[in-house]
Amino acid sequence: MLSWKQWMGLVAGSLALLAGLCSPGWAATSGSHYNYGVEGVLAATPPPPGWHYRMYNLWYNPSTLKDNSGNTVPVNFDLNVFASVQRLIHVTDIKILGADYFYDFVVPLIDTDFTFGSFSDSHSFTIGDIEIEPFALAWRQPRWDASFALAVIVPTGHFEATEPASPGLGYWSGRVTLGGTYYFDDKKTWSASVLTRTLINGEQDDTNITPGSEFIAEYGVGKEFMIANTWMIRPGLAGASYWQFTDDSDESATADQHKKAHAIGAELNVFYLPMLFQVNLRYLEEYGVDNGPEESRFIATLTKSF
After folding, report:
1. Cβ atoms < 10 Å from Cβ of 306
2. CB–CB of 110/47 below 8 Å?
3. Is the model's pLDDT at 8 over the cut of 50?
4. Spatial distance between the Cα atoms of 39 and 195, rounded to a whole number of angstroms
5. Which of 1, 102, 107, 182 is 20 to 30 A from 151, comparing alpha carbons?
6. What is the distance between the alpha carbons of residues 262 and 222, in angstroms, rounded to a whole number?
């Protein structure tokens, strides 16, 4: 039977992969500053030069909790998350090492209701931890694209160690992004893309614990179709994987119980060319989860280019 301290560690792990690019959290293993699955087909291909506004909307409602062995925990667990994440991207005309230089920043708004046993907590729609990506490069070739970026996540959201629905995580993170897209035909209608994120986390406020480092891979395969030179439709298959690959700095029995999760699904991107406006709908089903919730997630992304 689990001790109370182990149960608390499991609660912390249950919030591992929550909403928005910044997640609600509790204690050292409280979450991630990047929510896997928000990108899919063409994940590693940034937009062309210009300004781009993107809004990611995520719905996540898990009621199943997995332990360190991937078994379902028999406990009353329910999590309701909606996140609307605002991202502004500027792809410049500046060339560095043959790549387009771009930068962006992200502001998440998060609404969370959390229940574990008889305990509950909630936070209404409020700002989470913002992300600043000051240096990013995009290489574009006839049959492939590649991207590299450096970002920092700032703990601007409210955080309390005793409030698992806190919109902030209470620590800084640094992130390295690396990815590539391959086109199977000269017209670039068939594509396969993989985007990786590596996060190194700082010490958390209140707990003085440093969460373990994380690695995320998002991928997708898609096919574009033109309709009447006005619409571009791109259906595809998408997936994502998440691994915590170092221990938390905590000395508890659960500090070495790393989080892990995978998801697979499908997406549809609709691009109305005259307005430079896109809608992307993605559905992912989670599997192979350790130390966290397991459920389906739905992401709707709106993009307007200028």
Report:
1. 8
2. no
3. no
4. 8
5. 182
6. 19
109-163 residue pLDDT tens: 999 998 888 888 888 789 999 999 999 999 999 999 999 999 999 999 999 888 8
Name the residue range of residue 51's domain.
4-305
Pairwise CA distance, residues 181 & 121, whole Å:
41
Q: Which amino acid is at 79?
A: L
User: DSSP per residue over 286-306, as a string?
Assistant: EEEEESEE--EEEEEEEEEE-
Q: Are 6 and 254 in contact (CB under 8 A)?
A: yes
265 phi/psi in degrees, rounded to 5: 180, -150
Is the pTM higher than 0.85? The answer reads yes
User: What is the C-alpha to C-alpha distance for residues 132 and 202, in angstroms, rounded to an integer?
Assistant: 16
User: How many structural domains comprise the chain?
Assistant: 1
CATH number at residue 90: 2.40.128.130
